[in-house]
Write a structure and sequence with these properties.
Number of strands: 3
Shape: rod-shaped
Largest sheet: 3 strands, antiparallel
Radius of gyration: 20 Å
Strand order of the largest sheet: 1-2-3
Length: 110
């Protein structure tokens, strides 16, 4: 076995993984997830890179206590973060699939 050839193959594979991960990160910036709280009274749209694009509050909610509004906003944002994380994990796993990485190693490139 030629060690130098093996090292070159590993370097080429690393460059391919890095290129795939960068492409996936750019895709995540364009993909959006939506979440809501309070049966849709508060809605959040967020990118796969955790940038909040829109926040919608039903006008009827504005008559309630500020604490309730704040809790629903926080809940909607947290739900959107969870969805964005799931999207990110799936997208990055797809970017490193087929590269022959051992289980658990794919997360190192996120």
């Amino acid at each position: 076995m030629n060690i130098q050839a093996l090292m070159q193959q590993a370097q080429a594979m690393q460059k391919q993984v890095e290129a795939n991960v960068e492409k996936a990160k750019k895709e995540l910036a364009d993909k959006e997830v939506q979440a809501e709280a309070g049966n849709g009274l508060v809605k959040v749209t967020m990118t796969g890179r955790h940038v909040v694009k829109r926040l919608s509050i039903d006008p009827s909610l504005l008559e309630d206590e500020p604490d309730l509004i704040e809790d629903l906003i926080a809940a909607a944002i947290n739900a959107a973060v969870t969805k964005a994380d799931e999207l990110s994990e799936a997208t990055l796993a797809n970017a490193t699939s087929g590269m022959g990485l051992p289980p658990g190693m794919q997360g190192l490139f996120g």
